[in-house]
Amino acid sequence: MKLLFLIYGISLFSLSVHAEYFSKYTSILIENCAKISDSSDHEFPEIDYLNMVCPSYGGYEVEISGGDLRYNLKLRYQGVKLPTESFGSFHSMGANQIEWRFKKVKKKPNWNSTIELKALIYRLSFSDYSEAGPPKSRDALVVIKLDGKKSCVTASLKSGQPNINLNIEARKIADNPKSPCLDYEVSEL
Hints:
The protein is mainly β.
């Protein structure tokens, strides 16, 4: 009898909540961001550099910054720096936009929807020196679980893996509430 009630309860719960994930994108192009500093502001800069704040969602602050051919995304929530991926080799932002993953939940009895921001996905292009010969240009998709000040990196998927579509895999990880946090430090690049 208890098993019957358990099955009935699970069935009711699955009928009473419907979740749908979707993406929105924000630009990280210099013309769509607020530039703080840029080497092009100087006639003879020692190195290339850039620091700018870009559009974002949910109270998160996105900053693209770096220099000497090493550019990275930095993320903050209510002034707290959050962990992001950074490579020691030359790297840059690998796309002109970043992807924000949202969860739309419809609940019974009136099927009102709520929308929750769940993850951020961004692309880095980097020089891979791991094999003999000249460095290879590769991409990585970084997935950050967004949970306010407890946000964390959950994946850094590198291109070159056979039979893997990085975009699909990154979204699966972003949409999985059980994706574990990886041990990443706050990037200072």
